[in-house]
Write a structure and sequence with these properties.
alpha/beta; OB fold (Dihydrolipoamide Acetyltransferase, E2P); Rossmann fold; binds S-adenosylmethionine; U5_MeTrfase_fam; Class I SAM-dependent RNA methyltransferase; methyltransferase
């Protein structure tokens, strides 16, 4: 079908209409006229399609950064994981800003820039901040974590195809760091394996973790590796969580530190209160809080992965008031909610930093936070819609959204990170 592409949707696809039905189009840019092939039409309300030919190109279209994901290939043969790789970096950021603004308006009840705003395009263009160095490298070579998959029959290794679980052989991984490209076994056969994780730590040699088919553990996942955030060292299990973009840990560390510094300057931060770093991983953001508030800060980092908590305890060892707890966040908060008197008061004076996985904190945890009623909530989010939904709940309960920033730490994909500050 031929389509006029009118907008961007959450999830990295564009929007068009055909016979009154919404069509989500992959590999397009808003403003383009394209020929597209329908890839899914089971639902009455919408269909999915992928561009096969551009009839009128956007000035922001570029040759795809990854030959194996380009339009020249059949849609089913395109490698996944670089769905914005055909768009200039500047426009990618503007599209991410539009997605964030739209999510905040529709689900969060917050207007970031109104249609009457003279400088709507300017507001949105500046909303999503680039990572240092990305404009110089065209947003390539930044990934220090890559998961490849193994074809069960042939043993061939590669990324999944876009929107599918079919393994696509590729010659290179342009979004990945040099270290990862040096060890990537793209021409090898890994019969019996299911996944190959490639990791390029800041202060260790690159390494590979093999996940065998039918087994949960991956070889080498428990090895401790060394990461660096500016000149501060962090221990991390090779198989545990660490931000993907080489600059992302420093960007988020600095952003959280600055947000806490603003709260301190406004007289709203109490280092002796019950401060929390929820979904804390290896303690990166608790360390950021301490960088602003000083080493005497009281802060508890809560994380469900016991290996990460062990590393957090090491990483936060110099902070005498820091504690790393292995627990699910909802369970930990329900324990805290049993406290009474002075302990509850310390929580009301506290600041909660949270950095949940893609699904967001969700209704239950947000409701628990509202009941605990901390003075400030600093919310780091990788999903704008989940953030927007939780924003609505927090605002309805009397929290004000006082700051919102966003960071383009996943160039050439539709993903980005946001940081929202709420004050009670
Ligand atoms: C996005 S990461 C953030 C980690 C850390 N803040 C950082 O920046 O490195 C989310 C973390 O939450 C943990 N996690 C996921 N679900 C959880 C839950 N229900 N309770 C506690 N931790 C959880 C994951 O293991 C992961 O380490």
């Amino acid at each position: 079908m031929e389509l006029d592409v009118t907008g961007i949707a959450h999830g990295g696809v564009c929007v068009a209409r055909h016979d009154g039905r919404v069509v989500f189009v992959a590999d397009a840019i808003p403003g383009e006229r394209v020929r597209a092939r329908v890839t899914e039409a089971r639902k009455k309300s919408f269909a999915r399609a992928a561009v096969t030919e551009v009839l009128e190109a956007s000035p922001d279209r570029r040759p795809h950064v990854w030959a194996e994901a380009a339009l020249e290939r059949d849609p089913e043969e395109r490698a996944g994981g670089a769905e914005f790789g055909h768009i200039t970096l500047e426009r990618q950021r503007a599209l991410k800003a539009e997605v964030l603004a739209d999510a905040m308006k529709r689900f969060g009840g917050v207007e970031l820039a109104s249609e009457d705003d003279q400088d709507l395009a300017g507001v949105l263009a500046d909303l999503v901040e680039p990572a240092p160095g990305d404009d110089e490298t065209n947003g390539l070579g930044y990934r220090t974590r890559v998961r490849l998959h193994v074809d069960a029959e042939s043993g061939m290794v590669g990324p999944y195809a876009a929107r599918s679980r079919r393994v696509i052989p590729v010659a290179s991984l342009p979004l990945a760091s040099d270290g990862i490209n040096q060890i990537a076994p793209l021409a090898d056969s890994f019969e019996g394996a299911a996944t190959v994780d490639l990791i390029d730590p800041a202060a260790d040699d690159p390494r590979m973790l093999i996940g065998l088919a039918g087994e949960k553990t991956r070889t080498g996942a428990g090895d401790v590796i060394h990461e660096l955030v500016e000149d501060r060292g962090f221990l991390v299990r090779a198989g545990g969580f660490w931000q993907v973009h080489r600059e992302a840990p420093a960007i988020l560390f600095t952003a959280v530190r600055d947000a806490v510094q603003d709260l301190i300057d406004a007289g709203r931060f109490d280092p002796a209160a019950s401060n929390l770093d929820l979904y804390g991983g290896v303690g990166l953001l608790a360390a950021a809080m301490a960088e602003a508030a000083g080493p005497a800060i009281r802060v508890t980092s809560v994380e469900s992965d016991p290996g990460a908590t062990d590393d957090a305890a090491e990483n936060l060892a110099e902070l005498v008031g820091a504690l790393a707890v292995t627990a699910r966040v909802d369970r930990h908060l329900s324990e805290l909610l049993k406290a009474a008197g002075p302990a509850r008061d310390r929580m009301r004076r506290g600041t909660v930093v949270l950095d949940p996985p893609r699904s967001g904190a969700g209704g239950d945890v947000t409701a628990q936070l509202i009941e605990l009623s901390p003075a400030n909530i600093v919310y780091v989010a990788c999903d704008p819609v989940a953030l927007a939904r939780d924003t609505k709940t927090l605002r309805d309960a009397g929290y004000e959204l006082t700051s919102l920033r966003a960071f383009d730490i996943f160039p050439h994909t539709h993903h980005f990170e946001s940081l929202a500050v709420f004050e009670r």
